[in-house]
Design goal:
Strand order of the largest sheet: 14-15-16-13-9-12-11-10-19
Largest sheet: 9 strands, mixed
Order of helices and strands: EHEEEEHEEEEHEEEEHEEEEEE
Oligomer: single chain
Distance between the termini: 42 Å
Structural class: alpha+beta
């Protein structure tokens, strides 16, 4: 029988005390388009999916939930049964949100709420014509209490591959597809967002994005520099709610069948296999903001 397999991070749902500014940021700065607004909740699309970002009004800020798409080889009932066998409680919900008719809701060991689904409406709003306009929502990183149990949950229950580490007990990278990572779990005694990341086209896109951010009053906190784990060239800035946002290009591509990454000229080793890195920047550059403490 097939195993439960997530294959992409599809959306992030934010709680926000500052919804007007967050929606303004995601439309005018990031270039996302509004697909629907329901009961004060705004659903924004990168191009095709009904939503990739959700802004939910609240008296607090932070992550409300993460949405992951399943490969469809199992029904939701079969997924739920496999989770139950592993001692993981979940609930199947019907018609609880726009764009998705059926989903499974559950919590990971760190306390994050996840929504798993097989199908989402394709609204085809198209890519934006102004703003940054990323290719896609790429990954999230979060601080996690019970981080080792959380790593095992994503690997064993949802089918993620473990790729790299930075330090023995700091950042832990996992992938549900061929990207170097779709998830970065940071060891902590609390659970909260570390950053959310969007893929750009190339280095020129990144340069233009930094210019646009500067014009709109969003200074770059860290970067550009090439990371060690993943080798992506990255910059980081704050959104209006002070969530850290990464814009990146050139991320390593995983070949899971071989347990290596596709070769690149800047790789320190050939073949490059998952390993433990000791620093964040392959270029050796240092910045005022310490990404390990955002």
């Amino acid at each position: 029988m097939s195993k439960v397999k997530v294959f992409r991070l599809t959306y992030v749902d934010f709680y926000s005390k500052n919804t007007d500014s967050m929606v303004e940021y995601y439309t005018n700065t990031m270039g996302y388009r509004i697909s629907e607004e329901v009961d004060g909740v705004t659903y924004l699309s990168n191009a095709l999916d009904h939503h990739n970002i959700v802004i939910t009004p609240s008296d607090k800020k932070g992550i409300r939930r993460y949405g992951y798409q399943l490969d469809g080889n199992l029904s939701l009932e079969e997924v739920q049964e496999q989770l139950h066998v592993q001692g993981i409680n979940s609930t199947i919900k019907v018609d609880v949100k726009p764009g998705i008719s059926r989903l499974i809701e559950l919590q990971d060991p760190a306390g994050n709420t996840l929504e798993l689904f097989t199908e989402m409406e394709q609204t085809t709003v198209g890519f934006g014509t102004s703003g940054i306009v990323p290719h896609k929502l790429g990954h999230v990183a979060f601080y996690a209490k019970n981080y080792q149990n959380t790593i095992e949950f994503y690997r064993d229950a949802l089918g993620f591959n473990f790729t790299d580490k930075i330090g023995e007990a700091f950042a832990n990278f996992l992938s549900c597809n061929t990207d170097h990572h779709t998830l970065n779990i940071v060891a902590s005694d609390e659970t909260r967002l570390h950053h959310i990341a969007f893929q750009l086209k190339d280095a020129s896109h990144q340069c233009a994005s930094s210019d646009l951010l500067a014009k709109q009053g969003y200074p770059i906190l860290w970067g550009p520099s090439r990371h060690t784990a993943g080798h992506n060239i990255a910059t980081y800035h704050h959104d209006p709610d002070q969530n850290v946002v990464e814009l990146y290009t050139d991320m390593d591509i995983l070949i899971p069948e071989l347990g290596i990454f596709e070769p690149r000229p800047w790789h320190e080793e050939l073949p490059l296999k998952p390993k433990v890195w000791e620093s964040l920047s392959a270029w050796g550059t240092e910045f005022e903001v310490d990404l390990a403490k955002v």
